[in-house]
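Bench notes, afternoon.
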Amino acid sequence: MKRIGLLPRIIIAIALGIALGQVMPMGGVRLFATFNTIFAQYLGFLIPLIIVGLVTPAIGDVGTKVGRLLLATLLIAYLDTTLAALLAYGTGSLLFPSMVEATQMTTTLGKATAIAPYFNFNIPPMLDVMTALVFSFMVGMGIAYLPKTTTLKSAAQEFRNIVVAAIEKTIIPLLPLYIFGIFLTMTVTGEAYHVVRLFSRIILVIFALHIVILLYQFCIAGAIVGRNPLRLLWNMLPAYATALGTSSSAATIPVTMKQTLRNGVSTDIAGFTIPLCATVHMSGSAMKITACALTICLLQGLPHDPATFIQFIMMLGIIMVAAPGVPGGSIMACLGILASMLAFDNQQQALMIALYIAMDSFGTACNVTGDGAIALIVDKFYRTKENNEQTA
């Protein structure tokens, strides 16, 4: 029998958590609360290591290939990713407060922790999150620009493999059980209905936003290259549909390449920008994370002022470059800054994971379709530069 994907397992876990939370004896609920407590400790231990393991080699790899074309592509991808997140924050600031009020929530997510586990033990992280971030940037830049750092680069890449294996072999398989435990305890405390009701509305806003993002991306690209933006976007729809089905930017690269060439991008530029943007361009994903994070901040009374979120979004655009090619990799890489910058606890991080994975396909589709717009812009700049050099 074909293995059930992560998204169906998350959906099943949420449904079972809500259903069984109404009938399960408190002894059983406490058993799952115990598992969640231990798993949350393990996840908290891993978060700084995930940052070191993913961010360090990502910075080192980019730095060793520095060139004008690479820097231009990276800058455009980063600006577009942060712009999409800022759009989500601005829209959410206008719409979400009234939606949160409409749910008439009288409880908070934190009450789920009132169900005491049978036992608990601490697994303190080896590094603080911000320490891990600064360390990763320092070592990554050292690998990129200092000579004779091949041993350190190799060690960073091997550690990345260990971290990715830890995510794939321990976090991802146990994640549905963790989500089940979260929604089980939320149902017992009377919170699950309100949360599901609220986020069913938020998801509709997020879906509308990802359409807006695609439209402005291709309007900008169309204006730069002097072509019909809707026709350019229409040509990219096969890549959108493929990403919607696979939930993988990497698996969609051949289709994205084919449709980008159909839009008139040169073979060299398409071959360079599309694989690169599959890793560094995360506009749809950043928009989802920002919208969901803002909603949870509003629910919990956490700081959500512009200064706080602008700092978070600027760091988000960098962190997501390091996301591994595993399901839910982007949100895993972002757990550290959710905790350090927005003060998210374990319950709130778990809800973010569930929400992100539930919309993973749409975020990926937005990411890869937008890659075609970036390829058009880079191709235009490259051809202009080439023509100027020939006439000089």
